[in-house]
Design a protein that fits this description.
With about 220 residues, this protein is of the alpha/beta class. The chain is about 20% helix and about 25% strand. The chain is built from five helices and eight strands. It starts with 18 loop residues before the first helix and ends in a 21-residue tail after the last strand.
């Protein structure tokens, strides 16, 4: 047991994981895939000492903080993590017409942290440009050809970018927004594994995207 401090994994003013918790989760996902399925991945690439951080002090007022306002709470610091090794990524979000190539930083929407507007801007949306029906990662320096499909909610936004550092292709579906057929998407892309990454509050939740619930995979 790692005996992690539960409270340190979350923001004070928001219900989401911090980036450090997302990195921890991504490392354990790769470790599981390697141990249970023999996938040729390197979880050690996601060790804490393989990353540097950029701190944005008092940048983030989360959803809980917005409800109680700055009159009774103070903003969270916000950190973005970057690998210290070379990266070459292709990141796309079809619905938002985002198609980017470059180093790992392309997976971050830095406009979310560039200007502080506590009530109108969501710094957590820096991860993967916020929630998306479909987002796709290609790690062009990966030494494997594995493809993973994640079906997830917003908690996965701070996990998948780090998973992509160990996997060639990572596809992301958020059924709260995705209106297509999950089964057809799987048939088309043929992922090596499908991983469902939900926080308990959406197990299951009724939604209005064309799917009846977060477990409607038709």
């Amino acid at each position: 047991m790692e005996k992690l401090d539960h409270h340190s994994l979350f923001f004070r003013t928001d219900h989401h994981w911090k980036g450090e918790a997302g990195l921890w989760a991504a490392r354990h996902i790769l470790e599981y895939l390697k141990q249970q399925y023999g996938y040729r991945v390197e979880p050690e690439k996601l060790n804490d000492d393989q990353f540097t951080s950029v701190l944005y002090p008092s940048c983030f007022l989360g959803s809980r903080g917005k409800k109680v306002t700055l009159s009774v709470t103070s903003p969270d610091d916000f950190t973005l993590l970057y690998p210290i090794y070379d990266t070459e990524m292709h990141f796309s979000i079809p619905d938002k017409e985002i198609d980017l190539e470059g180093d790992f930083s392309v997976v971050y929407d830095l406009s979310r942290v560039g200007t502080i507007d506590y009530y109108e801007t969501n710094a957590y949306g820096a991860y993967m440009y916020g929630d998306n029906a479909l987002a796709r990662f290609e790690n062009r320096l990966s030494d494997n050809d594995l493809r993973l499909l994640f079906i997830h909610d917003s908690f996965g936004d701070c996990v998948l970018p780090f998973v992509s550092l160990g996997i060639r292709y990572v596809d992301s579906l958020d059924l709260r927004h995705f209106t297509g057929s999950v089964q057809a998407f799987i048939d088309e892309t043929k992922p090596d594994a499908v991983i469902v990454l939900y926080n308990p509050s959406v197990i299951p939740a009724s939604i209005e995207s064309g799917h009846k619930s977060t477990f409607d995979y038709r």
